[in-house]
Amino acid sequence: MSKAFYVTTPIYYVNDAPHIGHAYTTVAGDVLTRWHRQRQEQVFYLTGTDEHGTKVERTAEEHGVTPQEWADRLVEEHWKPVLQTINARTDGFIRTTSDRHRIGVQRFWETLRDNGYVYEADFEGPYCVGCEEFKRPGDLIDGKCPIHDRPVEMLHESNYFFQLAAFQQALLEHYERHPDAVEPKSAYNEVVSFIKQGLEDISMSRSSVGWGIPLPWDEKQVVYVWFDALLNYITAIGYGQDEATFDATWPADVHLVGKDILRFHAVYWPAMLMAAGLPLPAKVFAHGWLLVGGEKMSKSKLTGIAPEQITEDFGVDAFRYYFLRAIAFGQDGSFSWEDMAARYTSELANGLGNLASRGTAMVNKYRDGLLPAPGDYTNADLALQELLVASAEQADAAMLKLDFSGGILAIKTFVDAVNVYVTEQQPWVLAKDEANASRLDTVLYTICEALRAIAVLYHPVMPRATEEMWACLGQGETLEGQNVTTVATWGQLAPGATITKGAALFPRLETT
Ligand code: MSP
């Protein structure tokens, strides 16, 4: 069995319902994995929920239910349904309260202890419940956590420690040898300079928290929530329980994370894996934050927008398109309804939607809905075919390096060129004179072939609209089975196919 291309999202805390910041990561991973699927690769896409720790325990308490009841409710009512809302196609959903996760976590820490990397000691320090992390005094601003802008708590504990410091040199060497292992470059530099400042051993258990996975050798303590959560990436694929699946999937090809949780993924996690003798992930990609009013969007600050607030007005495809198109992946981006509406109208309704409806309508009007065979190609037709080759190559290269906005731009450039082609070729003028019949055939065929290629290339980004386009082109085979690397080979639509005019892909927004 060849190794699957393995992509993960962070697992989300169940103390609250999803907002568009969370959905952003999951959509990015979904586009990436759909793209790889359309390169005929085997793919495994994992998401899930982080259900232990103080934050979840306290939220449950405030609502008068047990943490397990709270987690079950949030997962069933919000975290699983949101995958449908954003049309994410995942292969696995891991919950940290599941048996398979608990068993894997206990095996893992037992192994690290057997390998001599865990010891017992006293510890006191400032703790941020928002981050679920001990802070160094130098991390704080006015005694507050800079990420959550709220006071930290002093915790004194007798804990078990993980020998993080022992891996400082090995981590530095790893990152020297693999400069692409953390991206973008700013994140890579941040990680390397953090490691160079010196790593300290870190407590891996809690005696004051009840809601967690008990240490197998000391049932009075639970595994620190981050050192439980990170392990989801291996417990979900059979670590310690189903070695065949594990070997066919691990290591991860891409861990997608927000920049606020980079250190856990690019310092602690690889050190833990080294301690267990496991291979390291190929890449951790840290994306930026969605900002609302200049600040990181968050439910606690009441700036959180639920994904369905956007999908109800704009549809799921526009949601997926907008965030990846408008924000360079790896940088922060501001969300505004005005920008969303403007791009929707110009790029989707007037751009792609209009092209699809014009093209299919003209085949119906002038050729009774049957795709004509093309005649001789002119320079204008050939230029479009060449642009498709270039755009498809650019899109593929960009998507492979997680440059989603670059990938979308390459496809959009082609869509815009086809719209210009239609305007310049004026099929409605050609249709007036029977002498131009062959030329009209060629133009109509060219437009439909272009629509075929656009449907294939945009399918990972906008699965629903492209399925509708595909159905209108009368194609028997599945759209997701179409290979993005051979999409530019001209002439794949069979003349004689039935072309139908569908409903508007992106209806115009109602102005109120
Ligand atoms: N449970 C941990 C992750 C454990 S992974 C082993 C966690 N959960 S979280 O729910 O707080 O955040 C999950 C992800 O959502 C993080 O990658 C975080 O960066 C991302 N986002 C949360 N708010 C965000 C924005 N406003 N914008 C973009 N991403 C944001 O951390």
Overall description:
The protein is α/β, with parallel strands linked by helices and 512 residues long. 48% of the residues lie in helices and 15% in strands. The protein contains 19 helices and 19 strands. It has helices spanning 20-37, 54-62, 67-79, 81-85, 99-114, 168-177, 185-196, 225-229, 232-235, 243-249, 262-276, 307-314, 316-326, 337-367, 379-400, 404-425, 427-430, 437-458, 463-472; strands at 5-8, 12-13, 43-50, 92-95, 118-128, 133-134, 144-145, 150-151, 153-162, 182-183, 202-203, 205-206, 214-215, 218-223, 254-258, 284-287, 290-292, 295-296, 333-334. Strands 1, 2, 3, 4, 10, 15 and 16 form a seven-stranded parallel beta sheet that branches. A four-stranded antiparallel beta sheet has the order 6-5-9-11. A hairpin with a 4-residue loop joins strand 7 and strand 8 (150-151). Helix 7 packs across helix 11 (262-276) and helix 12 crosses helix 13. The radius of gyration is 26 Å and the shape is elongated. The relative contact order is 0.11. 5'-O-[(L-methionyl)-sulphamoyl]adenosine is lined by residues 10-13, 21-22, 24-25, 50, 229-230, 232, 257-258, 260-261, 289-290, 296-297.
